[in-house]
Write the structure tokens for this entry.
Amino acid sequence: MGGLDDLYQQLILDHYRNRRGRGRIEGASASVHENNPVCGDECFLDILVEDGRITDIRADGEGCSISQAAASMLTEAARGKQLDEALELVEHFRLMMHGDAEPDEDLLGDAVALEGVARYPVRVKCALLSWLALRDCIAEYHETTATGGR
Amino acid sequence: MGTSAHTALDARALRAEFPILTAPRAGGGELHYLDSAATSQKPRRVLDAMDAYYREANANVHRGVYELAAEATHRFEAGRDAAARLVNHPREGTVLAKNATEAINLVAWAWGARELGEGDEVVVSMMEHHSNTVPWQIVAGLTGATVRFCPITPQGEIDMDALRAMVGPRTRMVAVVHASNTLGTINPVEEIVAMAHDAGALTMVDATQSVPHMPVDAAAIGSDFLAFTGHKMCGPTGIGVLAGRPERLHAMEPFLGGGEMISDVTTEGSTWNDIPWKFEAGTPPIAEAVGLGEAVRFLEDVGPDRIRAHEKVLAQQMLDALDEVPGVTVLGPRDVERRGASVSFTLDGVHPHDIGQFLDSKGVCVRAGHHCTKPLLRHLGIQSTARASAYLYTTHDDIQALQSALAECRAWFGAA
């Protein structure tokens, strides 16, 4: 079952069964709720920002193994990053998902295992859901801090 | 091929008529196509009819005086005649549209946008496909009307008592699905139409999932409008049908404007062509109408009653097979007299997307998602389901392949 093993690498199944960074953050600096219109999956993403750095990040919601594993890997890769570094990380992941970048394992961590998803166009959206939610969450953070919000 | 309802349909023999089902596959094995509720496969004779149209008779319709144009018009209009005959509807009330969605939008705009107003209500059921809710929501937003959703019972059927309570003097339109693409439920549309008419409301029946699978008699149902689509009934994409009562269509203004649909155009204004052409602006999908006509003749040769009988057997086999897989929950009615062979299910611990992907690796094609019925899934408190749907070419082998792949799927994702 070559194709399936390639898509569902052991690392992905491991993150799916044992989610890291799952849940919500009380008193989050910014939060977003996004969904995948194709399948109805949804993702809640919270970040805690201190001195321009993501000190905590949590993802919640329901979805397939790819979307859940991607969210789990995202929380590991993004935790501790400066906001602009996190945006670069998301952009690198996005390019990899569209087959436009060679994966940088140092940057992505376990998320490098999602490279094979790029060959399944319908599933790319699953992998990207939480990662693009982080991009929107950071934008939301900048917006609220600029307008003197929380 | 005989048409007697007493001889069972031979699905294995019918498969031979579908090139995609008999083509050699990479890695060998048979294609277990269980997504006919999304779109059906196409028999060779439909493909040939469309190909022959382009090779032998291509010209624009209703225009040229030359022989070729007359032949194109003849083949195009024969497609309409076939569609009308299949559902026992007069040809002048048989409008060809892009698909069932466009057919419903046609009514929402040509009737609803002009006739609905503040305080008016459109009643739909909770199990409608988005194609029979969203057009009404758009037009309601424009006119100040309200769209009300009739609840369903725990068995997955329209709650008729609730519907009776909901349909009243404010109701202008009752729009319901004949057979649910998600639950499989076959709704008592004759009764619903009569109830709506008693209240003075018009009726729209979305027959997209019934016309391909069972005998459907538009005259007996008695609705003002009935919509279905070609590509789910062995025909091509890009062609759908609105079977409208001629007097309703006469009274309605056009939907889209352009060529073909006019009687006269002056700098001061325009007058409209006769029905059904009044609702067919621009060059129509000619080859698609030809393909639809051939698909209807194919279904008539097989026999809609035999298709229904075959699918009752398949629905029962599918319910039994799914019951044997631990962790599977089936949606919709259990009684095959009250449902079609489109069966949605969930599997504990495995997301429908993952089910779909895993089954694909075993040559089994099922749909995963919300099936364009998000209000229904919200109502049921689930995000998505997997759905296996059968057709006249589906065999017991397909269902066995589904069952064994599902059992393996559980183990693979560690749900066992």
Notes: Chain A has six helices and three strands. The first strand of chain A starts at residue 30 and ends at 35. Chain A has one domain: 2-146. The beta strands of chain A are 30-35, 42-50, 53-62.
